[in-house]
């Protein structure tokens, strides 16, 4: 039931994913908002007629688009599907949001950058996707802003949580199963705990409700810089595993899709906009692992 003090309605698409699941948990702390959580089977963003019908039936103030094609390697052989979900559907969703005066908050990725920088990437740093997935996400950003200039796009990186499949859960499983594992040590970025990202998104909505305006592109990840290898070592340390982790170069671990070698996000803009501090990645990893231990 909607609260008597309801101030806004929020649609979360792709709500069965990591971020959608964290938003669902967070929603319990925000009775002032009415949330609509839709999975792909309930509301497919590629189905424009279905999306339009949903907006006609329900007054939506904010749409948080978590729906995405995220199989980075598979996208190399499924380009059409990747672009359909990550680009063209996002463009149509932005158009519908504009028609119904709905604020669109769209989630994008650090992979839109080419990885050649050695300095943390700002929102206006040059983009240059090195794989199909990244190209589809960049096209989605462009179409969203083209069709709805008030769209807020949040680029984030290396997302993990206690939900779904992700690097943290995979490493914990491998550390339990094996005596030693290999992890790439020449790709630099920063992990993002989906619960922290969810909190930031709700903060954006709360500030917008107070009259502030946010649009365009903003970067968000947890604080710090690391590699996949050091990330894995920190997971090992926090769960007290005895498994050996070997650092290896990307060239020793061939994947269908190339990954950017450096995609550390500069998050100074989000800190300034929201007047907030961002937790370090180690601090947030510890919180997530504590939750996983209880599951």
List the helices and strands and how they pair.
Blueprint: E1 8-13, H1 18-27, E2 33-38, H2 48-57, E3 62-65, H3 79-99, E4 103-109, H4 132-147, E5 152-156, E6 159-160, H5 167-177, E7 180-184, E8 188-189, E9 192-193, H6 194-209, E10 216-220, E11 226-227, H7 228-239, E12 244-248, H8 268-274, H9 281-294
Parallel strand pairs: 1-2, 1-3, 3-4, 4-5, 5-10, 6-9, 7-12
Antiparallel strand pairs: 8-11
Within CATH, the superfamily carries the name NAD(P)-binding Rossmann-like Domain
How many structural domains are formed by the residues?
1
Q: What oligomerization state is this entry in? A: single chain
Average predicted confidence as pLDDT: 96
Major sheet size, sense and barrel closure? 6 strands, parallel
Describe this structure in words.
With 295 residues, the protein is an alpha/beta fold. It has a single domain (8-165, 192-223, 264-280), classed as 3-Layer(aba) Sandwich (Rossmann fold). Helix content is 40%, strand content 17%. The chain has nine helices and twelve strands. The strands form four sheets. Strands 2-1-3-4-5-10 form a six-stranded parallel β-sheet, with helices on both faces. The protein has a two-stranded parallel sheet with strand order 6-9. Helix 4 (132-147) links the parallel strand 4 (103-109) and strand 5 (152-156). Helix 1 packs across helix 6 (194-209), helix 2 runs parallel beside helix 3 and helix 7 (228-239) packs across helix 9. The protein is globular and about 55 Å long. The protein starts with 7 loop residues before the first strand and ends with a helix.
């Amino acid at each position: 039931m909607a609260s008597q003090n309801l101030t806004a309605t929020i649609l979360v698409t792709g709500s069965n994913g990591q971020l959608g699941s964290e938003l669902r948990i967070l929603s319990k702390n925000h009775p002032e908002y009415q949330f609509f959580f839709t999975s792909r089977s309930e509301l497919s963003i590629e189905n424009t007629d279905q999306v339009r019908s949903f907006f006609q039936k329900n007054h939506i103030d904010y749409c948080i688009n978590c729906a995405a094609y995220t199989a980075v390697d598979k996208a190399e052989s499924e380009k059409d599907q990747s672009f359909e979900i990550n680009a063209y559907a996002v463009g149509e969703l932005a158009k519908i949001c504009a028609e119904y005066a709905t604020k669109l908050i769209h989630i994008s990725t650090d992979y839109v950058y080419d990885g050649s920088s050695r300095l943390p990437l700002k929102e206006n740093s040059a983009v240059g996707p090195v794989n199909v997935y990244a190209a589809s996400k960049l096209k989605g950003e462009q179409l969203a802003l083209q069709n709805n200039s008030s769209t807020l796009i949040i680029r984030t990186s290396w997302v993990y949580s206690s939900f779904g499949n992700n690097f943290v859960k995979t490493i914990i499983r491998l550390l339990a199963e094996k005596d030693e594992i290999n992890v790439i040590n020449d790709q630099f970025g920063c992990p993002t705990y989906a619960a922290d990202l969810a909190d930031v998104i709700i903060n954006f909505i709360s500030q917008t409700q107070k009259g502030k305006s946010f649009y365009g592109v903003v970067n968000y990840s947890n604080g710090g810089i690391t590699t996949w290898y050091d990330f894995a070592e920190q997971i090992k340390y926090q769960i007290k595993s005895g498994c050996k982790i070997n650092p290896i170069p990307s060239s020793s671990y061939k994947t269908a899709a190339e990954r950017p070698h450096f995609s550390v996000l500069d998050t100074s803009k989000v800190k300034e906009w929201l007047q907030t501090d961002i937790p370090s990645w180690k601090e947030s990893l510890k919180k997530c692992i504590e939750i996983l231990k209880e599951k």
